[in-house]
Amino acid sequence: MSKRINSFFQPIPSKKPKSDPEATTASSPSAPVATTHHPTYPMPIRDLPSHLFKPIANLERVIPPKAINNQPHLDLLYFQPFLPSPIARDLFNFLRNELPFYRVQYTIRRGPTETLINTPRYTTVFGVDETSIFIPGSQQDTPTTNSKDPNTPPIDSSPPKPPITLNPSLTLVESRTRAPPTTLKDKTKYNHPPRPIPPCLDVLRQAVEAATADGTHYNFCLVNYYATGDDSISYHSDDERFLGPNPTIASISLGGQRDFLLKHKPVAGSDVDAGKPLKFPLDSGDMIIMRGETQANWLHSIPKRKGAQGSQGRINITFRKAVVPGGTNNYYRYNVGDGAVYRWDESGKRMVAVKKEKESEPEGEKELQKVDGVKA
């Protein structure tokens, strides 16, 4: 009896504090992760850690997409979600930390007047149109030490550095002739050097293509980062000729929830209601695929958003296929430009503008210097 009484009055053992899932980011893996570098990248880009790569590469479709085609000329596939919530959360943190972003400025002319446009979001882009292709070459890894060699210096006991995967032989060539991209004037047909889609985004591209299994292939990846609710994109349609007729565009949302609005283009003499938009509150991990006549007849936008939801950052990844060089020139002009590169500063919780790499520094060891910061 005394044992029972004593045990009854024993102090209750304290519970271990639960770890904060939001504090765990994909940018701090327990083991080194390979890093890919191409001469056209402003800095090396880390590959996905295994806890992200494996589930995305082997993505199993549990909930089938919802087909939305009950409006004139509308053809959507709505995945709720496409990526499980934990994967979407960690992928958001990883991409925000690792990708180079830009805040592009450009001018437009309306008659005699030129107007300076400041893109109201951060952007980046990778890929090339179907007239060109990147030919994969042998990947060269950084040399490793051999402990059996007596001339090898002592092994460094500091934490291992991520291996750098250099791709100097990943060459851009004409799709048909495998010759360097040129025009009739023997000049390059691209105003900005196209960049291959890095592995951390290419595994997503393959997962998206496999999700529909309809033969759709994408050669471009555009990434938008909406830092606050003030970042937005106005009504527009991706109906440029360089995308070909009836293009298919896949759009993945990561991070904070934002409304995705769709409205039909005005049609003269028609009873089509162009004034009332359709609204999709996209959560992290959701994906919408726009197909068929959607781009030719509908406009879409991400409006500004106030309140707590608007204060959360959001990443939007779109995959598409450009068929002519005009698409490549357009995407790099309006999503890269010629300004500073921005990187996420985790300590300051903001995007920071950095200088480009110095050409004299060796590949994989170039450092980026901070210029100024933009509060996220």
Write the layout of secondary structure elements.
Blueprint: H1 2-8, E1 35-37, E2 45-46, H2 50-57, E3 66-68, E4 76-79, H3 85-98, E5 105-110, E6 113-118, E7 122-127, E8 132-135, E9 140-141, E10 164-166, E11 171-174, H4 199-212, E12 220-226, E13 233-236, E14 249-255, E15 258-264, E16 278-282, E17 287-290, H5 294-297, E18 298-302, H6 308-311, E19 314-320, H7 325-335, E20 341-345, E21 350-354, E22 370-375
Parallel strand pairs: 1-10
Antiparallel strand pairs: 1-2, 3-4, 4-17, 5-6, 7-12, 8-11, 9-10, 12-19, 13-18, 14-17, 14-19, 15-16, 15-18, 20-21, 21-22
Task: Write a brief caption for the model.
The protein has helices spanning 2-8, 50-57, 85-98, 199-212, 294-297, 308-311, 325-335, and strands at residues 35-37, 45-46, 66-68, 76-79, 105-110, 113-118, 122-127, 132-135, 140-141, 164-166, 171-174, 220-226, 233-236, 249-255, 258-264, 278-282, 287-290, 298-302, 314-320, 341-345, 350-354, 370-375. The protein is an alpha+beta fold. Strand 5 (105-110) and strand 6 form a beta hairpin.
What features would you describe in this structure?
The protein has 376 residues and is an alpha+beta fold. The protein has one domain: Jelly Rolls, CATH 2.60.120.590. It is 16% helix and 28% strand. The strands form 6 sheets. A 7-stranded antiparallel beta sheet has the order 3-4-17-14-19-12-7, sandwiched between helices. Strand 20 (341-345) and strand 21 (350-354) form a beta hairpin. The model is unreliable at 1-29, 138-157 and 357-376 (pLDDT under 50).
